[in-house]
Amino acid sequence: MSEDPFKVEKEGSVAWLILNRPDKRNAMNQAFFDGMIRHFAQLDADPGVRAVIIRAEGKSFTGGLDLSGGIETPKGGSPYERESFRRWIIDLQNSMTAVEKCRKPVIAAIHSHCIGGGVDLTSACDIRLATTDAVFSIRETKMAMIADIGTLQRLPTIIGQGRFRELALTGRNFSAAEAYEMGYLSRVCKDREELYREAKKIADEIAACSPVAVQGTKEVILFTRDHGIQAGLDYVAQKNAAILPNDDLLEAIQAFLEKRPSEFKQQ
Questions:
Q1: Which of 63, 84, 87, 64 is nearest to 75 (CA)?
Q2: Total-model pTM
Q3: Residue at 59 is within a domain
Q4: Is 201 left (phi over 0), alpha (psi -120 to 50) or beta?
Q5: What CATH number is given to the structural domain containing 242?
Q6: CA separation for the pair 265, 60 (Å, rounded)
Q7: Which end of the chain, N or C, is more open, meaning fewer C-beta atoms within 10 Å of its C-beta?
Q8: Beta strand pairing status for 6-11 and 135-137?
Q9: Tell me, what's the pLDDT at 71?
Q10: Strand order in 113-115's β-sheet?
C-alpha cells in the first residue's frame, strides 16, 4: 500500500484532515483518492467529530492531479479497457462525493495554488476560506481534458452559471479576491495563521450546535439542491417530524431559560 498522503489531527470536536505531500505540492495520486474515501468514512462514523477542516502542508494547497506518474490511467481502446477506464473515473468521483456526503460539515482552508482537482475537492466542501495569495483554476481544458470528478456539477450551484462557464471553458486562473466576490469563498485571510484561526473559529461554532440539527441541516441542503424546492420542503417536514422533540431541543430550551451555553451530547 502506498504511503498515506494525509495526516489527521483532532482538537476537541474538530478534526483536521491535512494534505501531506508537500514535496509534490500535494498532487493527487491514487493513494490520495483512496485515502479520501477511507478517511471520510472514519470521520463520518466518529461520534467525537462534529466538524472537519481540510488544510495542506507545504507551498500549495494542491497542484491538482498528479501527472508525473502518480496516476496510472487505463491504456488501449478495447471495449473492456474503456469500460474499466469509465469505472475508474467513477471511483475518483466517489472520493469527492465522500466529502460532500460526510454528515459532519467540511471546511476547506486554502492557501496558494488550488488547481484542477483542488477545485473539485473544495467544491465538495461546505465552507471555503483562503489566503489572499490563493490562485484557483479549472485547468482541465488547457490540458485537453474534461473536468470529471465534480467541478462541472457542483461549482455552478455555488457561483451561478454565467461566471462558472467562463472559468470552466477558458481554464484561466482566478484569484482569492475574485473567488470571494463571486461567492465561492466566505472569507479571505491575510496569511495562513489567520486562515487556520478563522477556520477553527467557524468549526468551533458549528461544533457548539446540536449535532443532530447540524447534520440534518446539511442533509436537507443537499437534498433540496438535487431535488428542488417543493421536494426539499416535504423532506424537511418529514425530517423534523422524525427527530423532534429530542434531548438536544430540551437542553437548548433549558440553557436559554438558565442563560447559559447549551451542552449538547455526542451523537
A1: 84
A2: 0.94
A3: yes
A4: alpha
A5: 1.10.12.10
A6: 37
A7: N
A8: unpaired
A9: 61
A10: 113-115, 135-137, 173-175
How far apart (Å, rounded) are the C-alpha atoms in residues 241 and 192?
Answer: 43
Q: Is residue 49 part of a domain?
A: yes
pLDDT tens digit sequence for 27-55: 999 999 999 999 999 999 999 999 999 99
Q: Are residues 59 and 110 in the same domain?
A: yes
Together in a domain, 96 and 162 = yes
Buried b (16+ CB within 10 A) or exposed e, 44-63: eebeebbbbbbbbebebbbb
Q: Please state which of the ranges 137-141, 200-204, 258-262 shows the lowest mean pLDDT.
A: 258-262
- Asked whether the beta carbons of 67 and 30 are under 8 A apart, the reply is no
One domain, residues 89 and 138: yes
Cell of 239: 425530517
E strands of 170-232, at which residues?
173-175, 187-189
Residue 174 inside a domain? The answer is yes
CA distance 163 to 68: 31
